[in-house]
Specification:
Layout (H helix, E strand, L loop, with lengths): L6 E5 L9 E14 L10 E17 L5 E3 L4 E3 L8 H13 L7 E7 L9 H16 L6 H16 L5 H5 L6 E4 L2 E4 L6 E7 L6 H14 L1 H24 L2 H17 L5 H12 L4 E5 L6 E6 L2 H13 L4 E7 L4
Parallel strand pairs: 4-6
Antiparallel strand pairs: 1-2, 2-3, 3-6, 3-7, 4-5, 7-8, 9-11, 9-12, 10-11
Helix pairs in contact: 1-2, 1-3, 2-3, 5-6, 6-7
The chain binds (R)-mevalonate.
The site of (R)-mevalonate (MEV) has 14 residues, from helix 4 and helix 5.
């Protein structure tokens, strides 16, 4: 199900007085299976790319003033509103890193990934831009350079991101993330996940701040919750590797309870979680920053995931997507 990230440069026929090279980049959405928020405090996380939700960026250089075309904003680069500052940051930081002026740059973005739903839209957009810009200039960047550039844009989006999203949207399969690095994880049996959009904008920055504020008041309580989320993530890695999907589901339910206790839940998430369990999900939890955004529910099989998706939409989900984390063994 998972598609490798690609970046490529192309040449159009030259026309007098204009440059013709363009570059393209793409990245996918991601789901965090376990470890959101705890990862900010050094705990591990398990995440997977969502290959059916893709962001594509195209960068070219011409003679016109620098400009952007995207669903969020289309117009002059220097008039871009604050809400697209992560996009502008990704582009300008990459150009600066490659020591190339912004004169004549043209950026186009197309994305299937819903914004502010915990699915990694900002990291995917940044990642696609970094790749497209490097490809347009025929420049080589190391994976470490690319990650750091995505992180630069993510800081503009979320404050101090752990780096999990930046890694997961560039992954070609599920990853174990810890201390800034991501490694592939073995999967013993497929995980049939339904992603259900509450329709409520998630607020990652505010959600992260909420946990920090609670920790300032109750350090022992919040640290115990973070430690338990970390243990659940280790246990989930073993369950995923061993193909014990019932254990994965039980871990998701407990993680959801803990995350809600940390103040990053939402009534719309609770409502969809109850629906998912009632429709036979093995487990259900928020994914990403929370306080809205998306729920993930684990089906017992491919057919049952379809039933879950129907039940979640009938219960008010604004949209659902099914993504399968395929077995690796
Ligand atoms: C956001 O997708 C995940 C969080 O853990 C924040 C982060 O890792 O930077 C909430």
């Amino acid at each position: 199900m998972n598609v490798p990230i690609s970046a490529r440069a192309s040449e159009r026929p030259h026309s007098p007085g204009s440059r013709s090279a363009f570059g393209e980049g793409r990245a996918t959405a991601k789901v965090i299976l376990f470890g959101e928020h705890a990862v900010v405090y050094g705990a591990p996380a398990l995440a997977a790319p969502v290959s059916s939700l893709v962001t594509r960026a195209r960068v070219a250089f011409g003679d016109d003033a620098p400009r952007i075309r995207s669903a969020a904003y289309s117009g002059a680069l220097d008039r871009a509103p604050e809400r697209v500052s992560p996009t502008v940051t990704a582009l300008l930081a990459t150009l600066e890193r490659l020591e190339h002026p912004s004169a004549g740059v043209r950026l186009e973005i197309e994305s299937d990934i819903p914004v502010a739903r915990g699915l990694g839209s900002s990291a995917a957009v940044a990642s696609a831009i970094v790749d497209a810009t490097a490809a347009a200039l025929g420049a080589s960047l190391t994976e470490a350079d690319r990650h750091e550039l995505v992180q630069t844009a993510e800081r503009a989006a979320h404050g101090s991101p752990s780096g999990l999203d930046a890694r997961a949207v560039r992954a070609d399969g599920p990853v174990w993330f810890r201390a800034g690095e991501a490694v592939p994880v073995p999967v013993g049996a497929p995980l049939h996940l339904v992603i259900a959009d509450t329709g409520v904008r998630g607020r990652t920055r505010l959600a992260v701040e909420e946990v920090a504020a609670r920790r300032a008041v109750d350090p022992d309580g919040v640290d115990a919750a973070i430690a338990r989320l970390g243990t659940l993530t280790f246990d989930a890695r073993a369950a995923v590797a061993g193909g014990d999907i019932s254990a994965v589901g039980r871990g998701m339910d407990e993680a959801q309870r803990i995350l809600t206790g940390l103040g990053v839940g939402h009534p719309a998430l609770d409502h969809l979680a109850v629906t998912a369990r009632g429709a036979g999900a093995l487990g259900a939890k928020l994914t990403g920053g929370g306080q809205g955004g998306c729920l993930i529910a684990l089906g017992s099989g491919a057919e049952q995931a379809l039933v879950l998706a129907d039940a979640l939409r009938a219960s008010g989900a604004a949209a659902t997507w099914i993504t399968t984390v395929e077995a690796t063994t």
